Amino acid sequence: MTSKVLPVTKYDLTPKKSIILKEDEDQGEMDTVFFLSLISYSVFVAYRDSFYTDESKMAEASFNLVMSNLFAFFPIMQAQGLWLKSLLVLTVYFSIRWHWTNIGLKLTSDDQWYGKWDAVFSIMIIVAYCMSYLPKCKRDFQPTEEQEKKSWVYRLCLGRPKETSEWRCRWSYTLLINMILTTGVGVMVYNVWHGGSMNIQIAICWVAICIAVVSAVYQLAMGELKAGNAKTRKKFMFWIVCGTVFGITAFLFKTAEGNTKADDFFFHSLWHAYVMSCAYSFSRATEYKEIYI
What we know:
293 residues; mainly alpha; 66% helix; globular
């Protein structure tokens, strides 16, 4: 009696590249609202003289100086991890309090105290974003599925992000280096800050932005995005370009001088809008750097 020979099943043992980070399904809607908000506000400020008389212009400029900080909603929602989100929230908090005193309203602490912390956190968040593009010095620990099932620490605090704009703190070598560098810059700004130290702040920001641009080019040419598909690379480049343009525009409005104090307030409100738009764009670009392992 002859036995029937069963066919041998072949298994593909080649490691497969897996996608661990997924874009939110409504990401396109979020981007649309963001661009419409920025464009609408820019047009509004450009034609501000058509809406207000000279008597009401200063009151409206003061209102916009404070409320333009709400553009931080976009990067706060989009930022990856609690470190960036926390810095953004603190930046907005002290910016609102500082500009509240700029329009002549009083708070409990000294006006300059709010100004100092506004400068510190504004510089820290720019540096933190720019440093997020530096190449990884060591591969981050990636827990196994078994480890994630057994412990919430492995599931929530370690490994690479699995969703865009996570409200979690995933500890890694990259994050620790970012926190150390950013905190060091914040301490330096705090110690040297005074009312006329704007040039130092702008110099730090430009250096950080240049590092981010060079790092982004490296990611495309030799880093993690080199192996990514063409669509991912194009989206990454699109948001890097947007962030760079928004950042340059923000600094132009930061240093612009108007004919009246009301104009200065409106220009500064555009600085708020565009610097937060820069942060949003860099957050979007970071997601495409993290999508593929």
